[in-house]
Design goal:
This protein is mainly alpha-helical. The protein is built from 13 helices and 4 strands.
Amino acid sequence: MLSPSSARSEICDWEVEEAARLNKRILPVNCRPLDGVSPPLRLRELNYVFFYEEPKLPDSGFGTGLAELVTALNTDFDWLREHTRYLQRAMEWDTGGRPANRLLSGNDIREPTALQLDFIRASEEEAEVRTSEQRKQLEAIAAAQTAREVALHEREQAFRQAAEAQRRRARIRNIAIAVSILAGCLAFGSLGVFTRMGHAVRMTIQAESGEALAFGKDLAAIVEAAETKRDGRPGEFTAKVLEAVADYAFVQKKFSEALDAANRAHTFLPNSLSIETMQAHALMFLGRRDEANALYLAHKGEPIPELNNKLWEQTIADDFEAFRKEGVTNPMMADVEKELGISH
């Protein structure tokens, strides 16, 4: 224990010399600054442990010093030096290509004692037990995870099958309803009744089946066949169903299908401004800007008879609002609204 008093003491100096003569470990501990007093010669080259806040040593103090002292006392320097020596020789042997002339020989090779062998064997057995337990735990966790994934997959498959069966039933039911409606409408020859009935069917499709586009195509084929059988060619009824098919295609962002349906509907009903709105929308979403713009501006201020004489621009505004609600947008929409004098 170094202090100004012990550093000057002849007795303490003798104790240091005696410890060195007997090859004892010396751990100098400074309990407070030496205030300029020189320690014994043999202590000057050693590493000190400071039990006070030494300005030249950050984080020093009693707690840090005590921890360092405990670590030093628990360190077997002979073993550490021997271990370091063996490690150095092993690294030289390995980097040198592991030649035979660098292997240990003579007294460097020491047989482990019975106690050391027991200690090593017990350590290996304990490590094996721990590894086995960890392996079992990991296997159990993996098995549980696999079982959970299988259960979730089976449950998901069951839900999908049930949903698919429900969609098939709804689609069959809606087609049956549509055929009945179609038969009545064609019998009376009333486009107005057909349009109102068709709107009701359309809402049913969207609410129940989730397959409006596929249903619309099926219905269009049925109507076209019936109308052709009755009149010799497709006409108004087929055109209105195809117009609905175009509307369904917009919701699913299938703009090419929307344009095909609208063009075909316009072939059967060429004077329908309602169908021309569908053509304009499809051209816009397909990036055919010039064609779409020309069609949007062609009928500004005109009423649409099949929509209770609603003005063309108001119909466009309502359609754009519906598109936006469905998440279907295009930068051109704002330009068209500006040119038509409408806003959203």
